Amino acid sequence: MRLYISADIEGIVGVVSRDHLTPEGFEYERARDWMTDTVVAACEEAHENGVEEIVLSDSHGNGQSIKIERLPDYVQIVRSWPRPLMMMQGIEVGTFAGAMLIGYHAGASHMGGVLSHTIGGTAFHEIRINGKVVPEAGINAATAGDFGVPVILASGDDVAMQEISEHLGDIVTVPVKWAYGTRSARSLTPNAAHEKLRAGVKTALSRIGSTQPLVIEKPVLEITFRNRLPAEFLSYLKFVERTDGYTIRYQGDDMVDVSKFIMFVLGFNSQLTF
Asked: From CA 214, how far away is CA 72, in angstroms rounded?
């Protein structure tokens, strides 16, 4: 049995501020340790419950946050950018029994949650697919759905877990901290969080087959930026429609196509998107 894991950092135990997100932060290295240890705990529990191979996406920041020398040998890791499938790169290789989203956070336009945003840091105010506001977890679950892979578990703060449940239904969710504000939370200790995650992984794997992939047909992507310039420049492309000063619309063939387009938007000129 093979398992896919996409790991972010904002939903990791203890992570609450920008000092945990970038190399300039005074606790960034500690946050990398917390993230790595969390992923290792999930991988070890999965392996103990029949998973023979894991493909792991390092999905935070520069894609080089997880300390790979501490990963088990049955794990392969996707690192750095750009990637056509963004936070789900690697899910196209072979077949997977399920996918897990570890260390996730709420979407940019959500009122609550710790360090809430959607993919582009400060670039995007909101992303909608077929008229529905979606966080990273919803986008990534739908990308997995294009390959027939269901998301079976998510971990992060309590607000993110509630939002993910609204999008993905009855999957296993593992809250490891409870949000007070954008940069504050009540958090478990790492050891307690890892034990809670291990229990969640075991439960999720025992329910393999009961969760269906999220499949979105003919996805219409809408991106609302925080800056007018990206919408203006992207509207010069004949396949992009500008619907207001800050918003563009793109008709995708499928979620793989949508993922590639978002990756292009993020990469074509960082001065316009950040």
From this structure: 29
pLDDT at position 274, please?
A: 45
Say which amino acid occupies 234.
L
Between helix 190-206 and helix 28-48 the angle, nearest 10°, is 30
Residue 175 lies in a domain: yes
State the pTM of this model. Answer: 0.97
In angstroms, the CA 158 to CA 264 distance is 31
Tell me the HSE value of 32 on the side-chain side, using a 13 A CA sphere: 19
Over residues 205-222, the pLDDT tens digits come to: 999 999 999 999 999 999
Domain count, the chain: 1
Q: Give one word for 78, left, alpha or beta, with left for phi > 0 and alpha for psi -120 to 50.
A: beta
For residue 63, being part of any structural domain is answered with yes
Phi first, then psi, for residue 208 (nearest 5°) are -55, 130
Vertex 15 angle, CA 11 and 17, to 5°: 115
